[in-house]
Inverse folding.
């Protein structure tokens, strides 16, 4: 049985990812600030990805209960914004950096050693959830754009550090997806209905979290090795 760590596991994309992975036979330990349901094959840790000891505890739990760690999905994040960069308080950049970047860094820092020490490093996958904001400069989201571009840089450097180990690293960049974060983004822009974000995608609809989770789950698979060091765009054809 493959075993995964998923951060942001109580959120829209994170919880859909947990469901997908379980359907594919994984055992999963989730981490989130919020509670999430547990089953025989899903454990959940309430904690903050800014705290590396929380993530180390989740990895140690997976190793103690299921004996291995094959996959880590770093999906926990916040969105902040609503003003141009020069009017944005520095505290907002600090929070985005700490949660959206350091949280991914912390997840990799605790998960990768367990993967390298495990029985099958060649099947191990680190997947970070970035964003269309990691490719484009979306207006009034200066700190979020910077943080998500940093996530892609982190993944590329991690893949280079993992050279020839068999463990791979990839970023998945969703477009507008129907979750609490999209509602929050609409609020930042003063948009009444997040469905309006459909105009930015060639699909002309927002994505369902399960569609993004399907892409993430492929990236987690043994067959996902060829994606190493890259960015997978799960954005329905995003055009800002
Ligand atoms: N929804 C979208 O349109 C969209 C688009 C592009 C990228 N993304 C990315 O997808 C990922 C998942 O977002 P989502 O849309 O499911 O949002 P969401 O708000 O539904 O889920 C995010 C989860 O992260 C958790 N979280 C936040 N801060 C945390 C912390 N410090 N420690 C632990 N958990 C924390 C939240 O409690 C929440 O459950 C994020 O990385 C987000 O940036 C989302």
């Amino acid at each position: 049985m493959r075993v995964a760590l998923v951060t942001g596991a109580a959120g829209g994309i994170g919880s859909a990812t947990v469901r997908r992975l379980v359907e594919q036979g994984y055992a999963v330990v989730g981490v989130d600030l919020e509670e999430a349901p547990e089953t025989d094959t899903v454990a959940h840790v309430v904690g903050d990805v800014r705290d590396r000891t929380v993530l180390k505890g989740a990895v140690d739990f997976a190793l103690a209960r299921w004996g291995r760690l094959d996959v880590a999905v770093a999906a926990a994040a916040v969105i902040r914004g609503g003003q141009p960069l020069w009017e944005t308080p520095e505290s907002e950049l600090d929070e985005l950096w700490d949660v959206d970047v350091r949280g991914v860094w912390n997840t990799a820092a605790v998960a990768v050693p367990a993967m390298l020490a495990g029985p099958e490093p060649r099947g191990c996958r680190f997947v970070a959830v970035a964003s269309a904001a990691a490719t484009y400069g979306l207006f009034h989201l200066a700190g979020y754009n910077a943080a998500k571009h940093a996530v892609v840089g982190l993944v590329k450097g991690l893949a280079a550090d993992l050279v020839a180990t068999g463990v791979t690293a990839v970023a998945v960049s969703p477009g507008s997806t129907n979750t609490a974060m999209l509602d929050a983004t609409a609020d930042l822009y003063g948009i009444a209905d997040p469905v309006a974000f459909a105009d930015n995608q060639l699909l002309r609809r927002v994505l369902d979290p399960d569609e993004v989770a399907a892409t993430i789950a492929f990236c987690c698979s043994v067959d996902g090795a060829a994606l190493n060091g890259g960015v997978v765009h799960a954005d329905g054809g995003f055009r800002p």
Q: What stands out?
A: The two ends are 41 Å apart (CA to CA). The mean pLDDT is 98. The first strand starts at residue 3 and ends at 7. The chain has six helices and seven strands.
